[in-house]
Amino acid sequence: MPPGTPAPPAVIAPQAATPRPARRPGRAGGRRTQPRLLTAAAVGVALVLAIPLVFLLIEASGSGAGGDARLIFRPLTADLLWNTVRLTVVVTALCAVLGTAAAWCVERTRLPGRKVWAVLIVVPLAIPDFVVSFGWASLWPWIQGFRGAVVVMTLAVYPLVYLPVAASLRGADPGQEEVARSLGTSRLRTFTRITLGQARGAILGGCLLVAMVLLAEYGAFEIVGYQTFTTEIFTEINEAFSLPAACALSLVLVLLSLAVLAGEGWARGRGRVSRSGPLAQRVAPPHELGRATIPVLAGFTALAGLALGVPVGASIYWMVAGGRPSLAGVSVLNAAGHTAAYGVLAAALATLLALPVAMSAVRYPGRARHVLERSTYLVLALPGVVVALALSYFTERYLGGLFYQTAPLLILAYAIMFFPLALVGVKASLARAPASLDEVARSLGQPRLAVLARVTLRLAGPGLAAAFCLVFLSVITELTATLILIPTGAATLATQFWVYETNLSYGQAAPFALVMIAVAAIPSYLLGRFFDSSARRMTT
Amino acid sequence: MTQLEVAGLDKAFGRHQVLAGLDLDVPAGSLTAILGPSGSGKTTLLRVLAGFERADAGTVRIGPAVADGPGRFLLPERRRIGYVPQEGSLFPHLTVAGNVGFGLPRRGRGRRSGQLLEAVGLAGFARHYPHQLSGGQQQRVALARALAIEPGIVLLDEPFASLDAHLRASVRADVQQLLRAAGTTTVLVTHDQDEALSTADRVAVLRQGRIAQCAPPEELYRHPVDADLAAFIGDANLIPGMLNGSSVDTALGPLAVEPADARVTTHVPATVLVRPEQVELLPATPDPVPAGVPAPAEGPGRTGVPARAGDGPGLAGRVTGSGYHGHDTVLTVQPAAGLGLPPLIVRTQGSGSFPAGSPVTLRAHGPVLAWPERTPGTPGSPPPDPLAPATRDHDFGSNRFGLKS
Question: Measured between beta carbons, which residues in chain A are less than 8 angstroms from residue B42?
Fold first, then answer.
């Protein structure tokens, strides 16, 4: 029927039921069809990421339920479980308090020197956990066991809570606090109910990261002599060469990680925080600290001193005090070169793998895509030692040991381990380059590649670089998987540090620690700058 | 001047059919509004026109070229379509001048974008970044950017929805003027009928994945193709009646029907559209109506008010509410009980002298529109229109159309 001609009523009437109720007012059905190639790539990535978990399950079922049960249900497992769980709970709680308090002081009060503190508080993230552990344990012998592990790990990982909480406080809607106060809520209650409520997702996310680090940590615990699942698995692989035992313990560890992951998801799902207004942000006026200024400043000084001063100071001390080399070792330069090469390649690979998954999740939201994206986070539940174990035995069993202890396998292991980090960064970066901008650019006559160069990468580029840096930083300070998978004859900063440290040659270990801190500090600094500038751009 | 022709367009996302055999002709140089509720597929239609989505079936013709059709698909960058998305979607990393010049060749980019900015009244803002502009300014930059490539067709996706109400009218007028000056063919998508009716030359109502009617605004208001559309466009009183060729008998008396339906010779039950401005309010006559007379035609329910030819005699009622709008007053009147009529909407000039609760006499002036009801029980025919008799409150919030006129 030609449009414009009134149709006879009977023709139109059958459809003339009430119009469908409005689903999302204002944003009418702007749906997009996802390109097939992208779907295929995203599924492919998910499959690669599934390798370690699948191998672990095959291996566990191979050794038989009876064997597994015998390896799992023994007193050692109970001890390991108790050690691992109590440490995780205590350190996570301490980090949550420390990180949130520091973030609130820096972001929401007139604390003198906020900009300087914002950097000093984050820098400990650049110091590998085992270097922190080394710094404390080498100076004070009482840093041992549970007590030592708690001190060392809290100081090493609290920035993982600080960073997301600070970002969330910066972006939170000040109107909600004002409304709460106007409704007669006290300052304290406003803080606990509104401010903490707004930061709740960030706190939970930070705690999740802390717990995962604790479950995966090896070096720091080895130094203070604290036994957890990860240290025991490592011993089984590298010293006892017992695959079934390592696999059985890994299974328990992965279940533990999955429980943490599920717990975080559950806690997060119970309350959603959203900004109910337009994105044009108003910055909350900072609180006056008043008489609390001096104690708070003292607290910040102590935190920076303990978390940053002790490890760096100890390394410098040992370098100066330590004698001449007693072991013929790899030069710092050589190790730094290897480390940087592995780091760059692994970071590039992880970012590349994250792209299709992130693109699919950000631009074409839907249930299936959401499940796919969430499934890749399962990698979080795989500690480095498990990934290394799975990959090394996977190559041995199915590829005849072809890639075992080669650089490609090590890089793949890194990319799998740090995929979630890359994914978070890539997703955030793609969110800044919405598909609608690409479409506008194309309608203005620009072909696909020009759009990529002139719009998508210009907008997402800084975020992609941040994701890259995040992975690079993690690779530089990775020890556990590296010790298992490193190619024979090669050495990274971390492994070489470890060789000297275990030989108690602190003088020779110290330079490696300092170089690691220096190299890792650069990406940390850039990351800080990036997140800061992006936050500022959002607020202006 | 480019014209746009769409024929038999289908588009589904998964099992959700969004467009189903949509036909639309947009004459060259016209400003056509696509009007429909949220989720009716307006944006999807625009995205298919722009080439961001491919249609499942049907053809899109831009000027002489087939842009989307069997075995043929023109990439978005080759369509010369100026696209202005809902939020403007300015490139945040480019200045205003950079945004406007984005689609232009490097040579002469600065000069041309300067001209365009002048045209949209933002000459001094070339070096500003998008986040430094107000919503209305961003919208105008987005338009200048789209016009820069001298597009054959401009697509506007709810361009004024994100603006404040007081800004909306002025920005709308500016945009309308700019588009006329540029002489482009424009398709504007909106869920705001006020916007569609006041801005566009032609309004196409999108319903159930196809165009229910496409006509100039006045035609759409005066001659909607069915009762449902009548209730959608403007305020409407839909009451039952008996249709007989050129007149219809209703509770408001016999009313002239236009256009007369030559096919209907005997009395047929029908749904009758009486617009609020077609109802006149008179002070109640001293002798109130005894209720309980369901049938049309003369009876004790009528009052003695003399009627003009084609107008119904009076019907007693009571004012239940009134809204004063300066230029007119909209009242709701409950007709006398027993007739089974819902409250009627009545529009009167000036300040109504009928406070709530006052008894009145209603009188309607034809000609009116009437649609025969489908007889129930006929095989294959749907049940009677569920909305008759009812004054339908459509899904689009308060209706502002009539209040403007």
Answer: 28-29
| B88-142 residue pLDDT tens | 888 988 999 999 999 888 888 888 899 889 888 888 999 999 988 888 888 889 9
Q: Which residue among A10, A448, A459 places its CB closest to the CB of B92?
A: A459
Specify the DSSP class assigned to residue A278: -
> Strand B328-335 vs strand B4-13: parallel, antiparallel, or unpaired?
unpaired
Look-up: residue for tokens 């604390």? A111
Helix (H) or strand (E) holding A183: none
For residue B64, report the phi and psi dihedrals to the nearest 5 degrees.
-85, -15
- Give the list of residues 6+ apart from residue A59 with CB closer than 8 angstroms, or none: A243, A247, A390, A393
Cα-based distances in Å from B374 to A16, A402, B371, B380, B393: 13, 78, 9, 11, 22
Nearest to A89 by CA among A153, A162, A164, A155: A153
**What pLDDT, on the 0 to 100 scale, is given for residue A288?**
80
pLDDT, residue A271, reads 55
Cβ-proximal residues to B119 (8 Å cutoff; 6+ apart), any chain? B144, B147, B178, B181
- Spatial CA neighbour of B278 closest among B305, B249, B309, B255: B255
* Mutation for B interface: A1, A443, A448, A539, most B CBs within 10 A: A443
d(CA A101, CA A365): 35
What is residue B107's predicted lDDT score, i.e. its pLDDT?
A: 86
**Please, which pLDDT band fits residue A13 given cuts at 50, 70 and 90?**
very low
Give the model confidence (pLDDT) of A129-147 as tens digits: 999 999 999 888 888 889 9
Q: What is the largest CA-CA distance in chain B?
A: 83
Contact call for residues A503 and A327 (beta carbons, < 8 A) = yes
Cα–chain-centroid distance for residue A70? 34
User: What is the overall mean pLDDT for chain B?
Assistant: 80
Out of A12, A21, A447, the one facing B226 most closely (by C-beta) is A12
Tell me which chain B residue has its CA closest to the CA of residue A6: B225
- The distance of B361 to chain A (nearest Cα, Å) reads 32
Residue A540 has pLDDT above 50, yes or no: no
The pTM assigned to this predicted structure is 0.72
Q: Is A52 helix (H, G, I), strand (E, B) or coil?
A: helix
Looking at residue A6, the DSSP 8-state letter turns out to be P
Average pLDDT over residues A525-540: 56
pLDDT level of residue A282 (50, 70, 90 thresholds): low
HSE value, Cβ hemisphere, 13 Å, CA-based, for A49 = 29
Nearest to A426 by CA among A381, A482, A359: A359
Tokens of B328: 């007119």
Q: How is residue B299 written in tokens?
A: 């009876």
Q: Classify the C-alpha dihedral A327-A333-A334-A337 as positive or negative.
A: positive
For A141-171, give the DSSP string: TT--HHHHHHHHHHHHHTHHHHHHHHHHHHH
Residue B403 Cα, gap to closest chain A Cα (Å): 23
Nearest-CA residue of chain A relative to B18?
A29
- In terms of CA atoms, which chain A residue is nearest residue B261? A8
